[in-house]
Amino acid sequence: MNLPEALVDLRGLLGERASVAMAQREHHSHGESYHAPGLPDAVCFPHTTEEVSGILKICVRYQLPAIPFGAGTSVEGQVNAIRGGVTLDMRRMNKVLRVSAEDMDATVQAGVTRKQLNQALRNTGLAFFVDPGADATIGGMTATRASGTTAIRYGTMSANVLALSVVLADGRVIETGTRARKSSAGYDLTRLFVGSEGTLGVITEVTLRLHPLPEAISSAVCAFSSVEGAVRTAIEAIQLGLPIARLEFLDDSQVDAVNRYSKTNLPLRPMLFFEFHGASAREVDDQAALLQSIAEEHGGMGFEWTQEAADREKLWKARHDAYFATLALRAGASVWTTDVCVPISRLAECIVETKKDTVDAPFPTTMVGHVGDGNFHVLYAIDVSNREEVAAADRLTERMVLRALAMDGTCTGEHGIGSGKMKYLRREAGEALDAMRAIKRAFDPENRMNPGKIVELD
After folding, report:
1. Which residues contact 156 (CB under 8 A, 6 or more apart)?
2. Residue range 141-173, pLDDT digits in tens
3. I need a labelling partner for 124 at 20 to 30 A (CA). Which of 218, 327, 358, 390 fits?
4. Number of C-beta neighbours around residue 438 at 10 A
5. What is the pLDDT of residue 314?
6. DSSP assignment of 351-404, as one string?
7. pLDDT per residue as tens digits for the range 420-452
8. Which secondary-structure segment (H or E) carries 50?
């Protein structure tokens, strides 16, 4: 590796958009996680797919690792340059290239954020609903197969990505998929790159499925006498086929953290947040009323709903601030956040047992969940310099993951593998991990694309 010569070539391609400034390198050494940072040797800011191709060809020439970087909101170490190399900050590739209201799709550069896209869709009657909480980039959301609060109705990124432009490790540019809503043409490369976490190539453009804006939206909140009662309500609502757009669980510790951080006044009990989308106010009110009756059977109390936009925005902002609310519980702490997903028939059991595990934790813990699809998260506010706390968090995480796997679940419903959950992927995937490794070797035989994430080649 000859970094000075590589930098000459990078600056010949990008000018000052190729940086070795320490401030830039440190900023791009980590995401929103407790994982140890990894400092890149250089940071590049491409504007086009052609420039990304040029950067990767330079990385080939000088045998440099390449690490794609979006908004930096990943939580399993996906963007940490743990072996140095060149980080490609995609946020300046932020153009909405095309919107087709008739076909209900759009093509965007990878650096467009979900909020920027929805702003561009104003007055079209359409929206992009995948909502992981953070204002992540579309490329990053695609690379991590993001989902979030609305996945129960609108699906994850897997269901909403139609086609991609991808730059492979050797600099070649390929197009996967088309704007057609279905295809039987060969291997489904689009699905392969969705969730690849930058280990197979750099996603530069994404064609997305859009959805009509609902005529009426209603949000509701309900406290419960027990964790199990809240989760049982969620399960019954799904089994009855209620068309819920969002269904979120907060345990009492998370509610307390949210109240302190967001200046809300929610009851200090396990809670469910709901949102209904429908063709009329009457429709969403009927949905809310039916859900209220289910909640009351399981110890729900104080069920309240509203169609006022300001009230709904305040409620969901409080939910989206759960990470920062947990962080604020302890000065100087970092948040270790982990997630699992299980079949909904096992969800109550999994959450209750996990909650029991955290009672004696030596640090504050909170729990939130997209319980409509069996996914929940535990957040630990830890002192990462304290080895005993780190070991305790690791033990709690392992118990949670092994419990989920024993219930035919997965070690991660939406955070991804990165470097943080590689040790659990073998347990979950078994011999299939060797097939994943073969795919990685086929696309990136020199192991330069975001090395040390998902699978290792040696």
Report:
1. 130, 145, 146, 147, 414
2. 999 999 989 999 999 999 999 999 999 999 999
3. 218
4. 12
5. 86
6. HHHHHHHHTT-SS-EEEEEEGGGTEEEEEEEE-TT-HHHHHHHHHHHHHHHHHH
7. 999 999 999 999 999 999 999 999 999 999 999
8. helix 49-62
Measured between alpha carbons, how far is 376 from 414 in angstroms, rounded to an integer?
Answer: 9
Give every strand in the sheet of 161-168, ordered side by side.
Answer: 96-100, 105-109, 201-209, 161-168, 173-176
Q: Give the residue from 316, 332, 335 showing the smallest Cα distance to 262.
A: 316
Q: At which residue do the structure tokens 């010569």 appear?
A: 5
Which residues touch 314 (CB under 8 Å, ≥6 apart)?
264
**Topology alike, domains 3-91 and 215-443:** no
CATH 3.30.43.10: does it fit domain 3-91?
Answer: yes
Torsion angle of C-alpha atoms 162, 210, 414, 273, degrees rounded to 10? -160
Rounded to 5 degrees, φ, ψ at 197 are: 55, 35
**8 Å CB contact between 224 and 299:** yes
The b/e string for 355-381 (b: 16+ C-beta within 10 A; e otherwise) is bebbeebebbbbbbbbbbbbbbbbbbb
Taking phi over 0 as left and psi of -120 to 50 as alpha, with beta for the rest, 430 belongs to: left
CA distance 103 to 341: 33
CATH 3.30.465.10 fits 93-212, yes or no: yes
The H or E element containing residue 256 is helix 252-262
User: Does the global pTM surpass 0.70?
Assistant: yes
Both structure tokens of 49? 């797919």
Where do runs of H (alpha helix) occur along 112-225?
Answer: 114-120, 138-143, 151-154, 157-160, 189-193
Domain ranges of the chain: 3-91, 93-212, 215-443
Centre a 10 Å sphere on the Cβ of residue 184 and count the other Cβ atoms it contains: 5
- Name the fold adopted by 215-443: Vanillyl-alcohol Oxidase; Chain A, domain 3 (3.40.462)
Q: Label the pairing between strands 42-44 and 86-89.
A: parallel
pLDDT at 256: 96
Q: How far is CA 17 from the centre of its chain?
A: 28
